[in-house]
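Dataset card, provenance and construction

Sequences and ligand SMILES were collected as paired inputs. For each pair, a complete structure of the chain with the small molecule in place was predicted and serialized as C-alpha cells. The example below shows a pair involving fe (ii) ion. Curators did not alter the output after generation; any descriptive sentences attached to a record were derived from the structure itself.
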Amino acid sequence: MAHHVDWKDEYDLGMPIIDTQHKHFLELMNQAYDAFYNKQTDEELAVLIENLKNYALLHFGTEEKYFDLFNYENKEEHVKKHLELKGKLMILMKEFQVKGGDMIPELIDFLEDWLVVHLNYEDKKYVRCFKEHGL
Ligand SMILES: [Fe+2]
Ligand SMILES: [Fe+2]
C-alpha cells in the first residue's frame, strides 16, 4: 500500500505563505514515496529527493527571513533546529547515494517526523510573533 501522509487541519498555522509551503513539502514527500512504491529508478528518485532538499532549504530560508524581519525572540533556537534537520538530511542523502531506493522509506519517515514534530513544536511558537507583524 502506498504510503500517504495526509494534511491535517491542526497543521495549519493560519498564515497562507507558510501553510502553502508546508503543504507543498508534504506533496513532494508523497511524490517521492509514490515513485519509490512504483519502483522508479534510483536516478528518478534522486531527482525527487533533490527537489525535496531544495524545497526544505527554501522553506527554512522563508521562515528565517521573517525571524530577522520581525526580530523573533526565539530565532536562535529555531535556526539551530533547522541546522540539525539539514545536517541529518544531508547524512540520509549520502546514504541514499550508496544504498539507492531502499533508503526511501527511512528518508520519508524522517521527513514526516520532521514535518509533524517540527511544525507542531517549533513552528507553532512563532505564530503569535508573525501574526503580530501582520503575516
Ligand atoms: Fe521551522
Ligand atoms: Fe516550517
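Derived descriptions for this record:
The chain has one domain: 14-132.
The radius of gyration is 15 Å.
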